[in-house]
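testing teh design pipeline on a random one, pls ignore if ur not involved
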């Protein structure tokens, strides 16, 4: 099996989202984006997310800790929640060419 390396094309449309515990936060995806690099600021807490449209909770969902990162692919269905307080999440949208 051969592995192919692709370089991402960064798209205009970076976003900072304020993610809390009380309601789902979603992405505002620019046209053409297939992937998103998500980072969680170190000054807040952690977040949990699902990419299948399900609502995460403060205890259920894929965990991204403060200072951590995740690459997302099913962008239209991403839902996020903070595990405590309000957390700043930075998102950079991209596609692979």
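output:
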């Amino acid at each position: 099996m051969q592995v192919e390396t692709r370089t991402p094309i960064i798209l205009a449309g970076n976003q900072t989202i304020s993610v809390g515990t009380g309601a789902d936060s979603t992405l505002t995806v620019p046209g053409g984006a297939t992937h998103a690099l998500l980072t969680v600021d170190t000054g807040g807490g952690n977040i949990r997310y699902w990419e299948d449209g399900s609502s995460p909770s403060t205890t259920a969902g894929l965990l991204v800790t403060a200072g951590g990162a995740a690459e997302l692919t099913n962008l239209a269905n991403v839902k996020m929640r903070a595990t405590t307080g309000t957390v700043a999440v930075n998102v950079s949208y991209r596609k692979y060419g």
